[in-house]
């Protein structure tokens, strides 16, 4: 009986670190910048990941061409959210628009700004640090 109890105790103790690390990930707060490679889950906040998110967003919104300007000027991330400023269209018809994404696992999921932006930063699903860029731009 004691060996079985010991195995149960070892199994229970082995599970504790996994629970603790999962709890900590939801509490992390990060700003924009290069140090925020992982925002929520494993969604990366880098130019390649954001460019892929913008391509998927464009495909879902009519399939037109959408590209981020080079460098990190074309996007910002914080607390599991991202805002991107892709250029859409071509030639004289090219304009810069705003796209909002939420991290779900390793993917950036496009969000309807009308649904995630409240009347002000406190009523918004979008983090306050991104509210102006995400909700008060074109």
Question: What tags apply to this protein structure?
Answer:
alpha+beta; disordered N terminus; four-stranded antiparallel β-sheet; 36% helix; 138 residues
Question: What features would you describe in this structure?
Answer:
- The chain is built from four helices and seven strands; from the N terminus they run ααβββββββαα.
- It is an alpha+beta fold.
- Helix content is 36%, strand content 18%.
- It has a four-stranded antiparallel beta sheet, sandwiched between helices.
- The protein has helices at 2-25, 47-60, 113-116, 128-135, and strands at 66-67, 75-78, 81-84, 87-88, 95-96, 99-104, 107-111.
- It has one domain (29-135).
Task: Write a brief caption for the model.
This protein has about 140 residues and is of the alpha+beta class. The chain has helices spanning about 1-25, 45-60, 115, 130-135; strands spanning about 65, 75-80, 80-85, 85-90, 95, 100-105, 105-110.
């Amino acid at each position: 009986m004691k060996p079985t109890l010991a195995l149960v105790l070892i199994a229970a103790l082995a599970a504790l670190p996994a629970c603790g690390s999962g709890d900590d990930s939801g509490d992390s707060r990060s700003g924009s910048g290069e140090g925020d490679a992982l925002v929520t889950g494993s969604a990366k906040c880098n130019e390649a990941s954001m460019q892929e998110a913008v391509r998927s967003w464009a495909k879902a919104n009519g399939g037109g061409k959408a590209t981020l300007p080079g460098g990190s000027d074309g996007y910002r991330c914080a607390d599991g959210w991202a805002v991107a400023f892709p250029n859409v269209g071509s030639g004289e018809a090219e304009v810069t628009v705003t796209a909002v994404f939420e991290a779900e696992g390793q993917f950036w999921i496009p969000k309807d700004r009308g649904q995630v932006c409240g009347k002000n930063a406190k009523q918004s699903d979008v983090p306050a640090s991104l509210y102006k860029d995400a909700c008060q731009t074109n």
